[in-house]
Amino acid sequence: MNSKAFIFFGRSGCGKGTQVKLLLDFLKSQNKEVVLIETGSTFRELSSSESYAGKLIGDILKTGRLIPIFLPIWIWTENLVKKYTGTEDLIFDGICRRYEESVSIDSAFDFYNIEKPNIILMNVSKEWSFTRMMERKRADDTPEKIQNRLDWFEKDVTPAINFFKNKDRYNFIEINGEQTVEEVHKEIINKLASSF
């Protein structure tokens, strides 16, 4: 089995979504089939539905609280079960925002016999992230909510990242996210060269 897996991490506003799209395009240009799993877009889609769960998710998203941990695990698990045939590469965006989720996906990699998954940490400072999010001028990007997200990254996401960083089975790479989009993409591709 030659499937590769890629999980993106970084503070809010670091450009993960853009780099996920660029990596997806790159892999496809290498004639690879890819399954892209994004939890954020699924949550936004669910929040606009008429279901009870959708209403609850919508309320959480509006207030900036954390989604219960079972929901992101359910989303990426369902995607793997339904879409992954054992031959595609996998790109994950918006997963493992807490330690328990990292442990869970580690067991999924065991189950699917995926060797040396790639963890891509896009490093940006808190100040850089804050400025970028304020510049987006989104309705939910108030100074208070942005600060909450940055604090949450330190408290919850950092332990999830360290779970992968401290395991030899993962290819852990750190990227300088405070570059142009093109420079970040080039650094990612260069540091992942041995994975292609």
List keywords for this structure.
single chain, 196 residues, alpha/beta, Rossmann fold, five-stranded parallel beta sheet, 8 helices, 55% helix, 14% strand
Largest sheet: 5 strands, parallel
N-to-C SSE string, H for helix and E for strand: EHEHHHEHEHHEH
By oligomeric state, this entry counts as single chain
CATH topology name: Rossmann fold
Full CATH superfamily name: P-loop containing nucleotide triphosphate hydrolases
Number of helices: 8
Helix fraction by DSSP (H/I, runs of at least 4)? 40-55%
Please provide the count of β strands. 5
Instruction: Kindly provide the radius of gyration, computed on alpha-carbon positions and rounded to a whole number of angstroms.
Output: 16 Å
The secondary structure category is: alpha/beta
Please, how many domains? 1
